Structures are given as structure tokens and as C-alpha cells.
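Backbone geometry:

***
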Amino acid sequence: MFKALVIENDEQGYRTSLQDLSEQQLPDQDVTLEVSYSTLNYKDALAICNKGPIVRQFPMVPGIDFVGRVIHSRHPEWQQDDVALLTGWGVGEKHWGGLAQKASVSGDWLVSVPAALSPLQTMAIGTAGFTAMLCVLALEKQGITPQHGPVLVTGASGGVGSFSVSLLARLGYEVVASSGRASDSAYLLDTLGASAIIDRNELSAPGKPLAKERWAAAIDSVGSHTLANVLAGIQRDGVVAACGMAQGLDLPTSVAPFILRGVTLAGVDSVMCAKPLRQQAWQRLAELVDGALLEQMTKVIPLSEARAGAEQLLAGQVRGRLIVDCRQAP
């Protein structure tokens, strides 16, 4: 038997509870792991608190990322006692996820933990840091370097935004952080390395098709009017890596930034991206991430507090990352 956070939706209503499950109840996949750590991402919080159509089937164990030790494997790449991590692939939405003491998944979805990172550090990075690294790689692929000028990061106080600011700063970029939390100014500037901060309200309302050229590139996790205004303010031949939709799925813009300034909009998919790109991103993270900074950016809670942590996350009461120690359960 093992503990798992389980979401159910039936005649008794939508509910989330910590339950005792047996291995026989796990999905029939080719690798079973003993989970060490998972995290609480925004998507997890929405699912746990029934704030959006995240979960595709019930019952569901949430947790879109986790790290653990292989205990059973029918997959040729994975042996007992291997340590592996997982992000994406619909886990926590279509497939049982990591907010449990055991998980069973396809071995094709797993990635080895880089030698330079501990299991705890991989989840301190988690989906948020992995997505941020994919965004940085997308900018680099389009030829953006620190010499091109400032890079804007929207949603800079969130998980993806915080990592984006930190990674870009460590690579030598001048980073402009867009945030709605005035209390985070010192954190963004002094801890993460941002050069300047702008209020998110500058970008969140409807704007013009083209605006003053302000940034060489941007990483956007907000979408909607914010992304439209970011595109309008990108310099000629600049690039925007788009990876989120916190403000909305819509994009109320025009073709003006693309055909009059040659701006590139690069979509970043952290859920289904190919394994070689995943391995590249994790290797770069192992090289770039500051272990001391990771500790400052994270808080560890037991599995029994995951529901409360999800509520705090949705209420905007969490800065940085919430790691869930799945080994700790009543």
C-alpha cells in the first residue's frame, strides 16, 4: 500500500483526498517508480481545487512532474534502482501523476537525472525551470545573444518567469522583469538578477498593433493582450518565446510586428517535446542553475499538505516553487 493524492468526480461531486492505494491500482505501464519528490505547479493547483477543465479522466492522481527510483521495469532503457525524472506527457491530466508515493509510467517519458543535480534539485527546477530553459533555447536557436539588447520576461514572479530571469541573467542578458507584485522587486533584482522591473499593467490592457521598439526578445508565459503588447514592442528581427496563457488563450494582435519588423513568435511546448531536446535542456540546466539560489526559490512540504499548498498557490501566496516530499505522509 502507498499514499496518493486522488481526485474523484462522480455523483458525490468533485473532491480531492489523500488515500491508501495498492500497486495493483496503478496504471499498467512499463516502469514503476518509488516517488521521492513532486511539485505543485499552477496546473496541478487548478486540478486539485477544481478551478479548470484540467483532468481528462477520473479518478486521477495529479502531479505533472516527479523524480523517483525505479522499482519495476519492463522497458529496455530502465533498470531497477535507476533514478529518473518526468515532466509533461499529460501526466496528472490523462495519466496518473507524481503526487503519490508510487507512480507507473511509460519508460519513453522518463529522463535520467543529470549527474550534477540531486533528485531534490531536479524538482526544485521541475516543469517551471525546464520550460524556462526551453524558452531560452528557443531564443538562442533564433540567434539572440546578450549583445542584441534587453530581454523582457512576463509573469516574472511565477515559476517559469523566475527561472527565465535567473537563467538569462546568468547567461549575461540584460533582463527586464514584468511583475504585478511590488513586494517582489528586491527578489527579482537582487536575487534573480533582473536589471529593471516594469508593472504588468503596462502590458495587460488592449494596445496598438505597433509600439516603440523596447526589447530584443521576450519570454512570455501570460498570453492574450500581454503577449500582443510584447510583440508590438519587440525590436526589428526580435524573437518572442511563448509558453503560457495565464491571462488567456486569445492573441488579439495583427500581422504588423511580423511583416513590418520581422518579429518571430516561437511557440514552446514543454509537454510533448522530443526526448533529445529534453535531454539537452536538462544538461544545460545542470550547467547553469545555482544550487544556493534553488534553495532560496523553494519550499518543501509533505504530501499531506499538498491540497493546502494548491490553495495558497491559486491565492497568489506562493513565491518560487513548492516541492512535495512524497515520502512524508501520515
Observations:
- The domain at 2-117+291-325 is CATH 3.90.180.10 (Quinone Oxidoreductase; Chain A, domain 1).
- The radius of gyration is 20 Å.
- The chain has ten helices and 15 strands.
- Residues 119-141 form the longest helix (23 residues).
